[in-house]
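Notes continue from the previous slide.

Worked example: a multi-chain complex. Inputs as given:
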Amino acid sequence: MNKNIVILISGSGSNMAAIVKASRNRHWQQRLGAQVVAVISNKANAAGLVFARDHQIATAVFDHKAFASREAFDAALMVEIDRHEPALVVLAGFMRILTPGFVQHYEDRLINIHPSLLPAFTGLNTHQRALDMGCKFAGATVHRVTAELDHGEILDQAVVPVLPGDTAQALAERVLTQEHIMYPRAVERLLTRMV
Ligand code: GAR
């Protein structure tokens, strides 16, 4: 059976691109039957949308500012996502807090990547906060999404050293390189369990 993947982004979409590239290999296509069928953004100018279109993937934009409430936004998003009958909904730099109803609707098939070693540094500005605390290591976490922000079962983690003189940006770039390796691998593992 085909395993459709829907990816939600808000920005550059480099993690999404890493997953799309991984999905184009024979193992994903033939053995896992997996394909990225849609990329959805809450920002019309998200650079990742261009990559998705260039790779013949359906795209959609739902501007959260056009909706009266978080619930209304999530309801519209769910209708669009469900059209694609996803086996997996992947949050990849999707900078929106989701309602409990949304999270429950995709229970067991909703995952996120967060740029810290959870449970440390939930929320925003993770790299600066890690530097401010004097952390010697930083990283990123792939986790299942629950109604509580940046909680949920940890599926994979990548660790990088914090180097002398690091800025938040330098650390973010070091972490992001690892995210691009880890996220496709985590998605592949989950899909393999569904075969
Ligand atoms: C990534 O570093 C991801 O971990 C982070 O945003 C970046 C998105 O980059 N996600 C969050 O902060 C979620 N709270 P990308 O758009 O290039 O994949």
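Summary box: The radius of gyration is 16 Å. The mean pLDDT is 97.
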